[in-house]
Specification:
The protein is α+β, with helices and mostly antiparallel strands and 229 residues long. The protein has one domain. Helix content is 26%, strand content 14%. It has a four-stranded antiparallel β-sheet. It has a two-stranded antiparallel sheet with strand order 4-5. The radius of gyration is 31 Å and the shape is globular.
């Protein structure tokens, strides 16, 4: 239901709203007073560390940005997965209006987003401090549900705030989502500091070839002697 209706809405918007830079999905829930955000708890230490994965989903013209985050197992694979995004609350008329003026926003996760094909994803491994910073940022941005706007406060802005909380550089949010996540990855991988000489593995020392042995002296010629008789 979610994917079909959003796709139809995107086609209707394409004729008159091509200037909009990003798209976020619509909740079928009626507009109502936002529920207070649940406080984020400090993370218990994970033996494999933590991660955040920035994703661009294919939907409509613009795509949609969201994040997956959680713990890694000792092999470096996701052990738990949570999801977060920002999208407009209400029907398609409200979403269309949100391309011009602010409309009510929603940060309650819609599981149907996971049915959308992923155009691009960028995973970053987090340490304990970064993960706790991420939880604090989620608590802060989820509480700020004042409005959604396709230009000034869309899903890219939401994802960008989480990226900044863990120390990443963020491209301009005036992007379509299907381009925003690849640019986020490219910007941060290009900005990664070069490995210090002390961190580089030592170069293997080439083995010296043994010096050739000197040629043995030629045997002296045998001189025959005769005894005079």
């Amino acid at each position: 239901m979610f994917v079909r209706t959003i796709g139809m809405a995107a086609l209707l918007l394409a004729a008159g709203l091509m200037v909009a830079p990003a798209f976020a999905q619509i909740s079928d829930a009626p507009a109502e007073a936002p529920k207070p955000a649940k406080p984020a708890q400090p993370a218990a230490k994970s033996p494999g560390g933590y991660y955040i994965e920035f994703r661009a989903a294919r939907i409509g013209i613009y795509g949609h940005s969201y994040v997956a985050y959680g713990r890694l197992d000792r092999f470096g694979n996701p052990d738990t997965s949570n999801y977060a995004d920002r999208h407009p609350m209400g029907n398609y008329a409200i979403m269309a209006l949100g391309h011009f003026v602010p409309v009510p926003a929603n940060t309650e996760w819609d599981p149907e987003v996971l049915d959308l094909p992923i155009a691009h994803k960028y995973r970053v491994k987090l340490n304990d401090t970064q993960y706790n910073n991420l939880l604090a940022a989620l608590k802060r941005v989820n509480a700020n549900r004042a409005y959604w706007n396709a230009v000034t406060n869309n899903c890219n802005h939401y994802v960008g705030q989480l990226a900044e909380a863990i120390g990443l550089r963020v491209p301009a949010q005036f992007h379509m989502s299907i381009g925003f996540i690849p640019d986020l990855q490219e910007m941060n991988e290009a900005a990664a500091p070069a490995m210090a000489d002390s961190e580089r593995p030592p170069k293997p020392t080439p083995k010296k070839k043994p010096a050739p042995k000197p040629a043995e002296a030629a045997a002296a010629p045998t001189v025959a002697t005769t005894t005079a008789r």
